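Practice set, problem 2.
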Amino acid sequence: MIADDLSGAAECAAEFAQPGMPIVLQLGQNPDGGDGPAVVWDVDARDATPALLPGMVQTINGSARAYVKVDSLLRGNWAALVAAIVQKTQRPTVMCSALPRLGRSMRQGFVDLSPIGATRGQGLAHPASSAIEALALEGVQAGHYVLSTGDDCAIRDGLLAASGRYPVTVIDAHTDAELDTLARALQALPAPYTAIGSAGLAGALARAMKVPLSQCSLGMMSGMAVLVGSRTGQAREQLARLATQSGQAVCWWSGNPAGGIEPALAAHDRSLHLFSTCLETTATAGGRHLTRRFVDEVLTRLPAVDCFVTTGGETARALCDALGVTHLTVLGQLEPGVSLARMDLSGGPRHLVLKSGSFGDPETLVRVAHRGGLLSAESTERNS
């Protein structure tokens, strides 16, 4: 499994983590995926040129199944990543980026947000382009296929015939049931394959493979730091709810050299620490560089904590890089879309909770803090 950003890599890895059998997620520096039920890499290519180490290509070519995780809205440099893998592996490749639980489907090769009232193409870097057109710009031919009706054997045969016509076959799906149908068909293919999709298709493949769900608990945390680098409305609302229910002020970071983090931290008088970049900061050019500066300054001011919570894959990756982390041990899910991993640091292991910036309801971060014992049930009920 190869993903273009860290929160997506962790989310997909969590689908395949099993109780007592976690998955090692490599951060791209190490071509050796290690042991376990799945080999997972984050190549950190959402807004950068993807670099595939030789060990990654060799592992894909030696595996029966490969998965490329891309953004469900097809944001970022996903087409270049897919093209690099297709051109270096020459395997039958099927793509469906639908994520029905967030109202994101695929229709005629386009991202379709009509279930949540948006227009076709909204959220894409190039709204007029379909997935097929975006791949063509990277030198990869792709065809379109609508899943046929009938039993699983008929659907498998139709998919097999379609995947033989073009290097990549883009498939429509609107519901989890359709993703489950696609996953069963992929599992029945006689040859090795590569699947491309969001966490939606990854979850469907895990269900088709009957992978037991690894539902995790945090346990009592002595200290938790929440870092919000994502500028999505969902992330900001979740942070606001957590600040209200915890009674903790958000420490805002501006990218200005004289700005720093406001208000200044009181070193050891609390167990829950909330940090966020300002919206005007994340909207400026050089977002990746600013995110790294944000994380670096948080770490210089933060007292010891045993759990980090990151909103946005770029924020999670900046944190891991700043801490010198080269791999994560993905333990499973706290809830769908919220992954739990362990970081093995020189001072001992720390938990890392990862969540996409665009995922979750307004209470998502509140539930995470509550699971870590940092919000009482009484305060949650009083403020809800």
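Problem 2, part (b): a different protein.
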Amino acid sequence: MGKREKGVDIFDFRIDFHHIGSEFLSSRHFNAETSVAAKEMFLFACRKDGIEVEVINIEVWNRWANRWENPSDFVECEAELVS
């Protein structure tokens, strides 16, 4: 197992989606540095398995507030804490 760089934060993202042609909502979790990276990993896994999906929502787990939040809200909140 490789070593993680110091100072790199990894977050838990929840991706809500449904299969094309279905209204049944599903969720998958990915650990990544950004919501963009999490979505790319998710779409790669879907393409690999030949599954067509539509992403409905992406949220990030805010461990300090103990809730799921919009990724852009989370980043702005983190930036405010630093300044």
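Answer key, part (b): Helices lie at 35-48, 71-82. Residues 35-48 form the longest helix (14 residues).
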